[in-house]
Amino acid sequence: MARIAGVNIPTNKRVEVALTYIHGIGRTTAKDIIAKLGIAPERRVQELTDQEVVHIREAIDRDHTVEGDLRRETAMNIKRLMDLACYRGLRHRKGLPVRGQRTHTNARTRKGKAKPIAGKKK
Predict the structure, then answer these.
(1) What string of pLDDT tens digits covers the 122 residues of the chain?
(2) CATH assignment of 2-67?
(3) Where is this region: Disordered (predicted)?
(4) Could you give the 3-state DSSP secondary structure of residue 84?
(5) Domain ranges of the chain
(6) Fewer Cβ atoms within 10 Å of its own Cβ: the N or the C terminal residue of the chain?
(7) 68-111 falls under which CATH superfamily?
(8) pTM for the whole structure
């Protein structure tokens, strides 16, 4: 099993798909990485040589922010907004949708499970 950026990537999947298991690398970025290194996209991770895995690891470390660093950076950005007490920061603090979505109905992902209000009937 290949370990890249602290993540065990699955060995029986194609390299392009397996790289997406790393937080911060999607399909497009994975395609760019393997194209830059000259690795055929249809090859499986188990077919890669140790040298190719090292090249992939170095390319990711050099050119991309992934895993812990990316999560930390995102958390710091959200914390900065909350400390500024700007509108987006207040929405994060209250656990409501940040990007202008309606909250009268829907928004259950951000608001959590619906809580019944005692004595409220129409």
Answers:
(1) 788 888 898 989 999 999 999 999 999 999 999 999 999 988 999 999 999 999 999 999 999 999 999 999 999 999 999 999 999 999 999 999 999 999 999 999 999 998 888 877 76
(2) 1.10.8.50
(3) 95-122
(4) helix
(5) 2-67, 68-111
(6) C
(7) Ribosomal protein S13/S18, C-terminal domain (4.10.910.10)
(8) 0.78
